[in-house]
Amino acid sequence: MSLEMINLICSAEEDALESKRLAEKQAADIINDAHKAGRSGVEETLARADSEIAHLIRAANQKATEEAAALASATANRLAAMRARAERRVGDAATFIFESITGLQNTGNSGSSGSSGSSGSSGSSGL
């Protein structure tokens, strides 16, 4: 083999090694770019998810506040109705208690319950 052939073979091997190194560098660059693009895509997706979660939380809080206000209003209305009913019954309760304790029936005429004649000698003078 001549020196010229050896040099040609060495040059071809060096060119092949250089081509291999260049291809490896290009492959590494492509891989790095793909990783960056992937991370960027993931970050964008996470940002959108965070935004959507925040929106859903705000909507849920608003709905809960509205429902709580409606429930409070309904409860206040029920309370007012119950209070009115109880206040209407106070007079009946007082009459029932009076009649239970005294044994007399309240006919609506104050002071005339003891003068009917049936219990005229009971001597009830001011309760």
Rg from alpha-carbon coordinates: 50 Å
- Taken from the alpha-carbon principal axes, the silhouette is rod-shaped
The N- to C-terminal Cα distance equals 146 Å
Secondary structure category: mainly alpha
Task: Report the portion of residues in β strands.
Answer: under 5%
Overall average residue pLDDT:
84
* Biggest pleated-sheet summary: none
User: What is the count of helical runs?
Assistant: 1
Q: Helix amount, in percent?
A: over 70%
Could you list the spans in which at least 5 consecutive residues all have pLDDT below 50?
109-127
- Count of distinct strands: 0
What order do the helices and strands follow? H
How does this structure look, described?
There is one protein chain. With 127 residues, the chain is mainly alpha-helical. The protein has a domain at 1-73. The chain has one helix at residues 3-102. The longest helix has 100 residues, at 3-102. The chain is rod-shaped, with a radius of gyration of 50 Å. It starts with a helix and ends in a 25-residue tail after the last helix.
Layout of strands and helices, then pairs:
Elements: H1 3-102
Descriptive terms for the model:
single chain; 127 residues; mainly alpha; disordered C terminus
Kindly summarize this structure in a few lines.
The protein is mainly α and 127 residues long. The protein contains one helix and no strands. The chain has a domain at 1-73.
